[in-house]
Amino acid sequence: RTVEPLEYYRRFLKENCRPDGRELGEFRTTTVNIGKCLCSITTADGSALVKLGNTTVICGVKAELAAPAVDSANKGYIVPNVELPSLCAERFRSGPPGEEAQAASQFIADVIENSQMIVKEDLCIANGKLAWVLYCDIICLDYDGNLLDASVFALLAALKSVQLPLVTINEETGLSEVNLKQKNPLIIRKHPVATSFAIFDDTLLIVDPTAEEEDLATGTVTIVTDEEGRLCSVHKPGGSPLTGAKLQDCITRAITRHKEVKKLIDKVIKSITPK
Amino acid sequence: SMSPGDTSVLAGLYGPAEAKVSKELPDRAALEVLLRPKVGLPGVMERSREQLLRQTCEAVVLGMLHPRTAITLVLQVLSDAGSLLSCCLNATCMALLDAGLPLAALFCGVTCALQPDGTILLDPTARQEQEAQAILTFAIGSNDRKVLMATTKGSCSVEEMQQCLAAAQRAADTIFQFYRDSMCRRYSK
């Protein structure tokens, strides 16, 4: 396994299964913890912890107030930031964010924008004067492959748990008054779910790759779908070429995965709502 | 340098050259892509584009023939009037051809804009990109017209994506013909 990793993997792939016992189209066990009671971040407005097998990603959302930009006076801001600290895998060094972290941050920003998950107009409190800024910090605690799927899932779960206090602008003083007693959940319009595939030897597609499989793969594809079956993002950063038909297979698998994830999130949300 | 319409990108390729010990790979050439925007410092968007370009190149460049070397690709955006990513892809491929690096296949970049009324527009201008419902960029390989790289902005249905892909594959023929003509012109002198 250490001397000839590719050959070791090929032997398993020939039998249509993987060393950890999964089928080619099978995901690892997914667990999610949402909110202040189960999740560790009590200072954040919303948080979620997602475990996809060994890959652990935690997302914290903090809401702050700011003045909206001059050219889009009725829009708030969402600022995602993905961090891959050196504790999650030995290949990440401490210091400025590396290329992988930055590309992941851009991907998350694109997913939020493309899927219209949170419409920026909803974040506006007073036109031209006050709007919410949501800082979404996604931190990987343990990297075992498939970072993008886990990050998107953690972001979705955390945003669902966000409770924003009611803010009113006092007419006389022009200052904002924050009412911490009255909290409303965020309006989330769409629920995007990401599904990642690794391409082996130009032909074989496996779902939810581990870190080892990602290193050996010749390419990766990530598909983000929403609940209507629309594609929010097809992200295939280079790697071996794929035919249109193979891409279609990936999309169909992604749509099935979406249903599974949606069920899981709904179950978890229902279990924490009475509190 | 590549200028479809008003979008213009200048590509410079250096390599295979001596690699720094920290960056060299024992069995293949180490590829590095640097994308400089027209104004401002490179940000997260440039990093993500660099990653896309780098992995696309790694798929076609036969790095195994030049182990422990570094190939550096520097792209400078001169003007941006829409379809920037596909312009960068085309510039990259032409730079690779010009440098004479061993390639497994050629690739070309095609941008499709899906307009609100459902029609597909290839190679959109900046104005059309803003009004479009979705913008899909594909890198199509020269053998079998397979998809090397795909990025989408905005959401679309699965059928629309397949239609865009088919349109992009047809358009790839025109671009590859352009490559051939340019190379003929360059070497016929």
Structure description:
The complex is a heterodimer of chains A (275) and B (189). Helices cover 29% and strands 32% of the residues of chain A. Chain A has 275 residues and is an alpha+beta fold. Chain A has one domain: Ribosomal Protein S5, domain 2 (2-Layer Sandwich). In chain A, the strands form three sheets. In chain A, strands 1, 2, 3, 4, 5 and 6 form a six-stranded mixed sheet that branches. In chain A, strand 11 (219-225) and strand 12 form a beta hairpin. Chain B is an alpha+beta fold. Chain B has a single domain (8-188), classed as 2-Layer Sandwich (Ribosomal Protein S5, domain 2). Chain B contains four helices and seven strands. Chain B has helices spanning 44-60, 84-99, 126-131, 158-187, and strands spanning 8-18, 30-36, 69-79, 107-114, 120-122, 134-141, 147-153. In chain B, strands 5-4-6-7 form a four-stranded antiparallel sheet, sandwiched between helices. In chain B, helix 1 links the parallel strand 2 and strand 3 (69-79). The two termini of chain B are 19 Å apart. Classes of the chains: A alpha+beta (275), B alpha+beta (189). The A-B interface holds A 99-100, 102-103, 105-107, 109-110, 113-116, 218-219, 221, 226, 229-244, 247-248, 251 and B 44-45, 47-48, 50-59, 105, 134, 136, 139, 141, 143-144, 146-158, 161-162, 165-166, 169.
How large a portion of the residues of chain A is in β-strands, by DSSP E? 25-35%
Number of spatially distinct domains of chain B:
1
- Secondary-structure element string of chain A: HEHEEEHEEHEEEEHEEH
Mean pLDDT of chain A: 81
Spell out the CATH superfamily of chain B. Answer: GHMP Kinase, N-terminal domain
What shape does the CA trace of chain B take?
Answer: globular
Low-confidence stretches of chain B: none
Number of strands of chain A: 12
Q: Span between N and C termini of chain A?
A: 48 Å
Helix fraction of chain A, binned, reads 25-40%
- The strand count of chain B comes to 7
Shape of chain A: elongated
Per CATH, which architecture of chain A?
Answer: 2-Layer Sandwich
